Automatic annotation (TrEMBL), chain B:
Matches recorded under Pfam families: ABC_tran (PF00005)
Keywords: ATP-binding, Nucleotide-binding, Transport
InterPro entries attached to this UniProt entry: AAA+_ATPase (IPR003593), ABC_transporter-like_ATP-bd (IPR003439), ABC_transporter-like_CS (IPR017871), ABC_transporter_ATP-bind (IPR050166), P-loop_NTPase (IPR027417)
Family statement: Belongs to the ABC transporter superfamily.
SMART domains listed in its UniProt record: AAA
PROSITE patterns per record: ABC_TRANSPORTER_1, ABC_TRANSPORTER_2
Stretches assigned to the ABC transporter domain: 1-195
GO function terms (MF aspect): ATP binding; ATP hydrolysis activity
Organism encoding this protein: Paracoccus aestuariivivens
Domain of life assignment: Bacteria
Name used for this protein in its record: ATP-binding cassette domain-containing protein
Length: 257, 196
C-alpha cells in the first residue's frame, strides 16, 4: 500500500528480467545447430505479425477466449455455490468433502477424455470438462472464506429482515471478495491452459487446435507465436479487467484521503 | 410485544427462568443487571434472533436493533448502510443522517468515521427502519463520558420525536434514568426479572 506512490522501483527489475530472458533466448537460438527447433525471437515476432495481419489470430484467439469465458463463468458460479454451502453447513461439508477431494485429484486429462466420450465431441463437452476441472479448486477456496463469515453481520441482517438476495449481495459476497478474487486470478490462468488441451484433443478451431496442427509439422516458430500471442491476450485481461475490478472492490479498505 | 418465557438453556445450564414481559409502543423499559447474567440473551429472544427457548413470543410490532458494537457493512458507504438493511429510500436515509448529525458524511465508508460517528450511524439505521420498539444492547458501553452523554440525549430526543418504545439492556442505572425508562432488574440463578 505504501509503495504505491513509487511504482518505478517495481517496474524496472520486471522490465530487466524480461529483457534478460529475451537475451538468453536469442543467444540460445543462435548457438543451436538446428534453427527450426529454436527460432530467434524476431522470427516468432514476425510470425505473430503475420497471424495478426491475416486475421487468423483474432478468430482462433476469440474462439479460445469464448471457451475460457464460458467455463470460467460456469466454474465460478458452481464453485461459489458449493463452497458457500460447505462453509455454512457442517452436514453438507461432511457429505460433499470426499467427492471434493476425489475431484481435486482426478487428472484434468481424464476428465476431458471422459467428457468427450460421454457427452460427445462438441462445445458443451469442452466447456463442461474445463469447468469440472476448476470447480473443486474454487469450492475449496470459497469454503475457507465462508467458514470465517462474521456472525455479527449475519445477525444484523437477520434483525433487519434483509431479503436473501440482498443479504447475499451486500453482506456475504463482499466478505468473500478476497477469496473470489484469489480463485478468479488462479482460475483464469489454470482454465486457459486446460482449454488449450481440450482444443488440442477435440476441437477444430482455437489456439489449442492451431498448436495441434503445428505440432504435427514440427513448426516450433508457429507454436511459440501462438503461445506468446495468447499469453499477451491473457496478461492484458489480467491487467485491464481483473486488476481494476479488484481495486474497485477494495476501495472501502482505504483510509480517508 | 409480549414474551411469556418459561426458560432458556444453554446446554445443561438454565440461564433464564420464568419471565413475563410486555412492552407497548411508546413505553420505555430498561433491563439492568451485571454482565453475564443473561441480559443479551433475553434481548436476542425478544428480537427473534434466538428461537430456541421454551415459551411464547408475540412480536407483531416492528422492531429495530442497536447492538453493542455498531455492526455496519464496512464495504458500503454511510448512506447504503441505512438504505440496504432497512429498505428505506435515499431521502429518508439522508434525513436520518442529518438528524444524528452526520449530514455530509453520506459517502464515507465506516472506516472513515470515528467510533462515535459509527454509533450514531447505527442509531440512524435503527430509526430509519421505523420501529415501534427499539431494542438496544449496551449501546453506550465503551464510549467516553462526553460522547455517551451526547448519544443518550440524542437517543432520548429521537425516541420522543418518533414515539417509539424502548427496551434497553444495560448495567448502568444512570443510562436508564437519562432515557426516562422504567427499570427492571435481572437477577438470580436462573435469572428472573424483578422490580427495581
Amino acid at each position: 500500500m505504501t509503495d504505491s506512490g513509487k511504482p518505478r522501483s517495481a517496474v524496472q527489475p520486471g522490465v530487466l528480467s524480461v529483457l534478460a530472458m529475451l537475451a538468453v533466448w536469442t543467444v540460445a537460438s543462435q548457438l543451436t545447430e538446428r534453427p527450426q527447433t529454436l527460432p530467434a525471437p524476431w522470427q516468432v515476432l514476425d510470425r505473430i505479425g503475420h497471424l495478426m495481419a491475416t486475421g487468423e489470430l483474432w478468430f482462433n484467439a476469440g474462439m479460445t477466449l469464448m471457451r475460457v469465458g464460458a467455463s470460467f463463468a460456469l466454474a465460478m458460479a458452481v464453485g461459489l455455490a458449493i463452497g458457500l454451502l460447505m462453509g455454512r453447513s457442517r452436514t453438507v461439508d461432511d457429505w460433499l468433502n470426499p467427492g471434493l477431494i476425489i475431484f481435486l485429484n482426478v487428472p484434468a486429462l481424464v476428465v476431458i477424455v471422459l467428457c468427450y466420450i460421454w457427452i460427445g465431441l462438441n462445445e458443451t463437452a469442452a466447456i463442461f470438462a474445463v469447468a469440472l476441472n476448476k470447480i473443486p479448486v474454487v469450492a475449496v477456496m470459497i469454503r475457507e472464506g465462508a467458514r470465517a463469515l462474521r456472525p455479527d453481520l449475519d445477525e444484523m441482517a437477520r434483525a433487519f429482515r434483509m431479503s436473501t438476495i440482498s443479504r447475499l449481495r451486500h453482506v456475504v459476497l463482499p466478505q468473500l471478495a478476497p477469496q473470489i478474487a484469489a480463485s478468479a486470478r488462479a482460475g483464469i490462468s489454470l482454465i486457459w491452459k486446460i482449454v488449450l488441451v481440450v482444443e488440442f484433443l477435440g476441437r477444430s478451431n482455437g489456439v489449442g487446435f492451431k498448436i495441434h496442427l503445428l505440432f504435427s509439422s514440427f513448426d516450433v516458430t508457429g507454436v511459440l507465436a501462438w503461445a506468446l500471442a495468447f499469453v499477451g491476450v491473457m496478461l492484458a485481461i489480467d491487467l485491464f479487467v481483473l486488476r481494476p475490478w479488484e481495486r474497485r472492490a477494495n476501495r472501502w479498505r482505504q483510509d480517508a484521503a | 410485544m409480549q414474551l411469556e418465557l418459561e426458560g432458556k438453556q444453554f446446554g445443561p445450564r438454565e440461564v433464564l427462568g420464568r419471565i413475563s414481559l410486555s412492552v407497548a409502543k411508546g413505553e420505555r423499559l430498561a433491563i439492568l443487571g451485571p454482565s453475564g447474567i443473561g441480559k443479551s440473551t433475553l434481548l436476542r429472544i425478544l428480537a427473534g434472533l434466538d428461537p430456541k427457548f421454551r415459551g411464547r413470543l408475540d412480536a407483531g410490532d416492528r422492531l429495530a436493533l442497536v447492538f453493542q458494537e455498531p455492526v455496519l457493512l464496512p464495504w458500503r458507504d454511510a448512506l447504503a448502510n441505512i438504505t440496504l438493511p432497512t429498505g428505506c429510500d435515499r431521502l429518508t436515509a439522508l434525513d436520518w443522517l442529518g438528524q444524528v448529525g452526520l449530514a455530509g458524511h453520506e459517502n464515507k465508508f465506516p472506516r472513515q468515521l470515528s467510533l462515535g460517528q459509527q454509533r450514531r450511524l447505527a442509531l440512524a439505521r435503527a430509526f430509519a427502519a421505523g420501529p415501534d420498539i427499539l431494542l438496544a444492547d449496551e449501546p453506550f458501553a465503551s464510549l467516553d463520558p462526553e460522547t455517551r452523554e451526547r448519544m443518550l440525549a440524542l437517543t432520548d430526543a429521537l425516541l420522543t420525536r418518533t414515539g417509539a418504545g424502548l427496551v434497553l439492556v444495560t448495567h448502568d442505572p444512570d443510562e436508564a434514568a437519562a432515557l426516562k425508562a422504567r427499570t427492571l432488574r435481572l437477577q438470580g440463578n436462573p435469572a428472573v426479572l424483578q422490580n427495581d
